[in-house]
Design brief:
23% helix, 134 residues, homotetramer, Thiol Ester Dehydrase, Chain A, 5 strands
């Protein structure tokens, strides 16, 4: 599967008094990229929830912070699926600066598929499985 | 009615690269104080929603910013009701530093009472009206 | 002056348990649009700060909330300068849904120009004044 | 060393349209608890920065999400130091509901000590090392 990439501009709201992006905000950037990755594949999460009764939630994550991002930086956030199981998937996500080689921060995110009715694990819908395992 | 006051500590998450509290975060602090004011009066907003079908939402606000707050500041956020109508109330809210005279920022907030069913205006529940107009 | 417009997608991070965009997050959206408006005019706020010693900060704001935005909505945030004084400007900013007529929320924002050295008011740099009063 | 515990109330700002606390906000809660843990030991991070030229930053983190927190929940966030090295420490942090046994989410956080001058690793100040290894 090819890697998906999504641009994220850093605004004041994302920074802290240390002059850099506040550490938890990278998680927000990664979630924006996952949302856009699903959208690019043809899936809207609100429709998945309302029509198929399926929610994708973060079950665990592992983040390494290497270098800080700052106000006005134009970041690229990637999404690469590394493991697909019935009710979960592992994604690797990098945050880089546009046109610069280094990785600022790297996440491994486990997403689980839950039913909206009782939040129990359920299979990732087949159409999504088919598309993302290519 | 006496003024309600709620302490808010400033953490890194609240600041921006200018070294001060990011301007929209004062709105969050003000909402924390409103939530605690209602709690001090004996009302939990989740119970109001689930049992009485009533939501309080911000209809408009007016904020003046005078002085910045910084990391580690211990702030005091006040709530004073100035006008009570059937389905709305006007609140004045100040943000100060603990043990310092000046006001950092001042808000006038109009809260409306809505039904959870169709988000149409509805009377503020009588028990709340009775308590807050004293 | 023509009105500037900037798209903002609503992600989960922007919403609250009421199912709608949390009220203070519209202020963040408006600031993103102001940053992009200045960028479109050729000004980067980090350069203004580092090279000219000038900061733009929010001095006051007035927001009216009419209709809620929800997860996945594609919003358009506008910027229109209505008054330009030596050290301040008044901006009107609307938040709409893309391809829909109604205004969700409307802000009047007073921005002041401050020196980075001691945060005292200073003239908005002439090149910016020239560009934005056209 | 005994475990430090800090209460955190969940407000609307912390929740998302799924009705639960947004996943990255637990990182903010954990940082509040770390700040208060250092304060309880007698250290203010702004003084460490200004007087000793030392910053504590998150180098990596590992979070497992088990159960959601909701609006109005009163959470307890713990801090337990598990490893102390010269320029870094590993902390374990749990998020629980007050008066309930289960753990909602669990973090392992690696904090590094950096100089404010060039962000290179530096020893954790001796007074802190002495206090936290007891």
């Amino acid at each position: 599967m090819t890697e998906f990439a999504w641009p994220v501009r850093v605004y004041y709201e994302d920074t802290d008094a240390g002059g850099v992006v506040y550490h938890s905000n990278y998680l927000n950037f990664m979630e924006r990229a996952r949302t856009e990755w699903l959208r690019a594949l043809g899936f809207e999460q609100d429709e998945l929830k309302d029509k198929q009764g399926v929610l994708f939630v973060v079950r665990s994550l592992n983040i390494e912070y290497y270098l800080p991002a700052r106000f006005n930086d134009n970041l690229i956030v990637t999404v690469k699926m590394t493991t697909l199981r019935g009710a979960s998937m592992l994604l690797e996500q990098d945050v880089k600066k546009e046109n610069e080689p280094g990785v600022l921060c790297q996440g491994k995110v486990k997403i689980v598929s839950l039913t909206t009715s009782d939040f129990s694990p359920c299979p990732i819908p087949a159409q999504i499985q088919n598309l993302i395992q290519i």
